[in-house]
Amino acid sequence: MSSICKHVAPEIIFGRGALSQVGESAVRLGANKVFIVSDQGVVNAGWVERVLSYLKAAGLQYEIFSSVTSNPKHTEITEGLKRYLESECDSIMAVGGGSPTDVAKSIATMATNGGVIQDFEGINKITKPLPPMLAVPTTAGAGSEVTQFAIIVDKERKLKMAIISKSLVPDIAIIDPEVLQTKSARLTAATGIDALSHAIEAYVSLAATPLTEVHSLSALRLIAQNLRESVACRTNMEAKTSMAMASLQAGIAFSNAILGAAHAMVHQVDGFLDTHHGESNACILPYVMEFNLIACPGKFKQIAEALGEDVTGLSTWAAAKKAIKAVRALVSDVGLAEGLAELGMKEEYIPSFSRNALKDACLVTNPRDADENDIAEIYRMAM
Q: Any idea where the Alcohol dehydrogenase iron-type/glycerol dehydrogenase GldA domain is (predicted)?
């Protein structure tokens, strides 16, 4: 654990009805014309139209770019940037899950820094300030609205690029749990497990601090107590609000503590197979936890307790193992895939996936050293 704690987070507006603050918030950032980045699912659910009503009431102009896909590709950034420049917008607002938010961050990056998005892969490659950014999440999982990450698929290499910079943290995050009511049960489950993986990997990260640990543990408690209920009922606002808070706290935690081997590995699966990030995490996370267990059993014991496991009278090692049991039970209860083979993974992909995972920035903060053979074996177990 570092003796010096640095913490990045945007202004956060949280709660039922918070969506009504988007117009006033954009005005405070000096916006005149807002470039809205979203996807067709969010448009069809009516949330973009709701946002537009508040922007109109604030006297703001806007342009909509909704050609964002799951696991957004670098070509979408190029298209979005062209639209942003042609429309002469002066600010950017993401309305959607992690994909629209990452696209919005990437467009903002290229709007002022030039080049191609591949130029910014890695850590701290952004040198010029970005346009004002607002983020309105419509899922409870990615946490992108408060992070210094943007994850984009390079179509040519068929892998996900991690772009990491404090410049990518939006100026304002507006989190309204009411928007979660239009999500399907499957998406609710997948995004919830994504938040779970963020909280766990941030908690055991080599870069964890007391500031990130408190957010990680709180997120884990909320997820354990509310994800099943949120999947079961779209209108359970108590569960939705708790999951929105869990996603937010897990996002703050991993934005500052970074992640680990699970995400380094999942990025390769998603980039090549175009799988949902939460589904891939559900398959890989338990096996990465098993691999990492010897590095920090005390922390895994605390994870087990946060997930509601009774560890009374158990040794640290026995209690730590219950964390993995709890994660597997949660994945099963919410109905997600429990093996990568179900998602299209094949043995022949493992060598290239393993090599690329070793280059992923998220692996740097994994609590246990891992080489190519270690990563390959985890992939095989997760099949």
A: 10-177
